Amino acid sequence: MSRYRLQPSPAQEAALLEHCGHARYVWNLAVEQHAHWQRGRASAPGFAEQCRQLTEARAACAWLAAGSVIVQQQALKDFHQAMANFFGQTHQRPTWRRRGRREGFRIVAVKASEVRRVSRKVGEVRIPKVGWVRFRWSRPMQQAKSFRVSRDAAGRWHVAFAVIPQPVPGPGTGAAVGVDRGVTVSAALSTGELLSVPPLSEAEKKRLVRLQRTLARAQRGSKRRGKVKAAIARLKAREGDRRRDWVEKTSTDLARRFDVITFEDLKISNMTRSAKGTLEAPGTNVRQKAGLNQGILAGGWGRLVTRTGHKAPGRVQLIDPRYTSQTCNVCKHIARESRKSQALFLCVACGHRDHADVNAAKNLRDTAAGHAVAARGGLPPGGPVNREPQRDLLLVG
Ligand SMILES: [Zn+2]
């Protein structure tokens, strides 16, 4: 991932915050407009109409007009992408953005001359109305068409360049793998490998608990409270960094080792919704599922699928996941009772024993290979996806 630590001067930081404020303001306006929309009424304004309204708003409001039109338009564009994701059932409905939380903005139509290297470890990027802002040149850079500037909860600034990664060549042997998302492990491969996002260390967890205790005791608005909050945010940011690194390494590894990579086509938002009951087991295990959802989100599942698709274009398949966790990979018998626990699969028909997620991963792999899992009702396997990297949908940061 082409993400770099941005190092703005105090004056630049103020200007960046102003951009964030504009992006947030425009985004929230769009959220509000769409919130008023109801079934049966004329459709909510589309991107073109909102851009026209933005022009009007800029003419009427000096504060907005002083800002960058790219920043403001891209906020609208991001909102429409978020709505498309929502309708595509891969994401939650976009909601209000609050000050200080996941702040950021996007700049598009970036020219090669707008990014430069000033020394071995320092680069600079030109941000409209802000000027050249330094960043830590911590990894090689490819030319980018757009970038996103963001500020994390710990107050660190980053710039993420949207470059489509070079496709990673596969082994060319036809090697196929199924990848099942897990909870206790982040991903289980049909090879039997169990991969996990590195969690916080024991020492870090202890520190986090201690900090949270201190926070509970600290007086509201006190200086001490602010310090503790910042320390907690830093720890959480570290966890996020590790998750992103894990996704990058794992997706590259999968693209390099296998020619066909199969994931379950499991829309994260569907899962979130199904905590209240699923197709297979309505209304059961609600508490357990709530935890499961957290595990998936924390595991960066969606990002892993997306990045693998970028690195292995045309080689990633998404498969309908129904019954993959209940089907025995050896005898194909389907029974909910075969899944003894989170970790253990023990077939009630043939006695086959495997790690439950690995068994599911093998079913995914085999389904992709055409040996369809004998599902009740005969479910069609999902078609291949991500034939080409989708430039417009690439979201970084
Ligand atoms: Zn069996």
Features:
10 helices; 40% helix; DNA-binding; globular; Transposase_put_HTH; Cas12f1-like_TNB; transposition; 2 domains; 397 residues; four-stranded antiparallel β-sheet; single chain; six-stranded mixed β-sheet; alpha+beta
Please explain how this structure is put together.
This protein has 397 residues and is of the alpha+beta class. It has two domains: 159 residues, no CATH class; 160 residues. 40% of the residues lie in helices and 16% in strands. It contains ten helices and 15 strands. The strands form four sheets. It has a six-stranded mixed sheet. It is globular, with a radius of gyration of 23 Å. The termini are close together. The C terminus is likely disordered. The structure holds zinc ion (ZN). Zinc ion binds next to loops.
The topology string of helices and strands comes to EHHHHEEEEEEEEEHHEHHHEEEHE
% residues in beta strands: 15-25%
Counted up, domains total 2
Give me the Rg, rounded: 23 Å
Q: Order of strands across the biggest sheet? A: 10-9-8-11-12-15
Number of strands: 15
Residues in helices, as a percent range:
25-40%
Mean pLDDT: 80
Ligands bound to this protein structure? zinc ion
User: Spans of 5+ residues with little confidence (pLDDT < 50)?
Assistant: 272-293, 371-397
- Please give the count of helices: 10
Major β-sheet, in short? 6 strands, mixed
Distance between the termini: 9 Å
Write down the overall geometry.
globular
Give the class from helix and strand content and strand pairing: alpha+beta
Summary, kept brief:
The protein has 10 helices and 15 strands. It is of the alpha+beta class. It has a 6-stranded mixed β-sheet.
